[in-house]
Design brief:
By secondary structure, the chain is of the alpha+beta class. Helix 6 crosses helix 7, helix 7 runs parallel beside helix 9 and helix 10 runs antiparallel to helix 11. The protein is globular.
């Protein structure tokens, strides 16, 4: 159990990074909503709307079947009689997905059925709980507008409700959270502004989008929450906004050039980090079957006339080295952003390795957003391909989406085919962890140094993809026959072969092999093609 003083420190180290705006709106919204019941009207609003010029380019997955069975996060549920839009048995994220209405853009569902679902939602709106929050409201409103526009539906009742939702959203912008939530609010308000030709919505949307794109898209094109999955999600939304503004001549100003510029640099980053098999690194909060695939986004962007190429990875803290045999993705950056690290993991110096377009050493990924032991484990240092000292996490991940004291990069040196960095995540016990990567055509060398006054028994972890079913192990090295790969460990005291759970998506895991390499202060790991210096063959 944490002592009181440790709890105080943890809360302080979490709160001290927040922006003043976040703290202000955390208090303001609570007080306002406690004192005032918000009400909005639709006076003097044109509710007979022809809709927008819209073409769905990326369709939603089949999450709804004809018998009222919804499947989200790999969990299916059938509503026998009436849909409960507050259904919460499978956690808040499942409920959120139910309220997003992504299924409106499933082509196999008839327009009549989709309208029935919207009307059912409107009828039960006074009972809605989680779905009224700004984030699901933002996504739901976009999906309604896309559906209405693509199907050329004119329905004043739906429009009246939609306008009400946008008024409520514009008065509850997620300034208390910032990050991707705030950007989603802005994107949605842009759709609302164009749909209703509403200057008030447009002014707010443009302000949010301009400020947040400048803040959230880093110099090298990465989204600042450093999750490739969220990068894909937000890039899709940005491409939607480009299509919206480009194909619907309502406001003509300088917004479209900004949208295109940010989309192209985001595409460049995504092109650079996407593996040759089309997948992305599963680092931080990333998992399968949530975001559009990179290839879908590239095709969508091409249809909009955008141009991009690969880019040099810098500010994101990620690096990628590729040749004809392997692709190595590494993390030598800080947790980001400081004031919204909800999707960050304790994973400094983590890496993934693909060999011949197949995953070999992987990040374990995520399978839940519930605040439970599984999420805590998946965010911990021991669930990543890096070094654990004294059984500690490098960064203090807690509460599902919180980070207290955190590891910072204190040195970084890069040359051709070489990178070396140090972090202070273990400074509490007087240790600095330094790790270097050097690359040659046929091998990769990883050196770990623990710099401090004492000698520590530490562990380096390697997590293998579930396709790796057999590892031949001796005292100082392993051999993986399917890949013809040897990995040697100079300085190791013991190598343990263990099992872990690899995430195949939300709520789906598969057992796989991991190695725990015990060493004291120094370890050199060499990954080589072939049975080099292997004693067990």
């Amino acid at each position: 159990m944490l002592r009181i003083i440790d709890l105080v420190k943890m809360f302080y180290n979490t709160i001290k990074y927040l922006k003043a705006k976040q703290l202000y709106y955390q208090i303001f919204y609570r007080l306002r909503n406690f004192i005032i019941k918000q009400q909005f009207d639709n006076k003097n609003i044109n509710l007979v709307i022809d809709g927008l010029v819209w073409k769905n380019f990326i369709f939603s997955d089949s999450t709804l079947k004809k018998n009222r069975t919804f499947t989200f996060l790999n969990i299916a549920h059938k509503f026998n009689e009436s849909i409960d839009w507050n259904y919460s048995k499978y956690g808040k994220l499942w409920t959120y997905n139910l309220n997003y209405f992504d299924f409106l853009n499933q082509p196999e569902i008839t327009a009549i059925k989709r309208i029935e679902l919207i009307r059912d939602y409107i009828l039960k709106y006074h009972l809605i709980k989680d779905g009224k929050e700004p984030y699901p409201t933002s996504l739901r409103a976009i999906n309604w507008i896309k559906f209405i526009s693509a199907e050329s539906i004119i329905d004043p009742t739906i429009n009246k409700f939609l306008h009400y939702d946008y008024k409520r959203l514009s008065n509850n912008i997620e300034y208390h959270l910032l990050g991707n939530h705030l950007l989603e609010n802005g994107f949605s308000l842009l759709f609302g502004a164009y749909y209703f030709e509403n200057e008030e919505f447009y002014f707010l949307a443009k302000k949010i989008i301009q400020e947040e794109l400048e803040e959230q898209i880093l110099v090298d094109g990465a989204h600042f929450e450093l999750s490739p999955m969220y990068h894909q999600i937000l890039l899709r939304r940005l491409l939607d906004c480009i299509q919206l503004v480009k194909n619907n001549a309502w406001e003509i100003d300088n917004l479209l050039p900004l949208l295109k510029n940010k989309a192209e640099i985001m595409l460049s980053w995504l092109e650079t980090i996407t593996y040759k098999d089309g997948s992305i690194p599963m680092v931080n909060d990333s998992t399968y079957n949530i975001a559009p695939r990179s290839e879908q986004l590239f095709c969508y962007a091409s249809s909009l006339g955008l141009n991009w190429s690969t880019i040099l990875l810098t500010e994101s803290g990620y690096r990628k080295f590729s040749n004809s045999k392997y692709e190595l993705f590494i993390d030598v950056g800080n947790i980001g952003p400081k004031y919204q690290p909800g999707h960050a993991h304790s994973d400094t110096f983590n890496f993934e390795l693909y060999v011949n377009k197949m995953p070999l050493i992987v990040d374990t990924g995520i399978s839940t957003y519930e605040k439970n032991d599984i999420r805590q484990i998946q965010r911990s240092t021991s669930s990543h391909n890096t070094v654990v000292v004294n059984e500690m996490n490098q960064s203090q991940v807690w509460g599902g989406f919180r980070v207290g004291n955190r590891a910072n990069i204190i040195s970084l040196m890069e040359e051709h085919n070489f990178v070396e960095a140090s972090h202070n995540g273990y400074i509490k016990i007087g240790v600095i962890h330094k790790r270097s990567f050097s690359f040659k055509k046929d091998n990769i060398s990883i050196k770990d140094f623990l710099i401090g006054p004492d000698k520590y028994k530490s562990y380096a972890y390697l997590h293998f993809h579930p396709n790796i079913e057999n590892i031949i192990l001796d005292d100082k090295s392993i051999y993986i026959e399917d890949f013809d790969i040897s990995i040697s460990f100079k300085g190791s005291k013991k190598i343990e072969q263990l099992k872990y759970f690899y995430s195949l998506g939300f709520n789906v895991q598969e057992k796989a092999i991991k190695l725990k390499i015990i060493f004291i202060n120094e370890l050199e790991t060499t990954i080589s093609t072939g049975k080099i210096n292997f004693n067990g063959i």
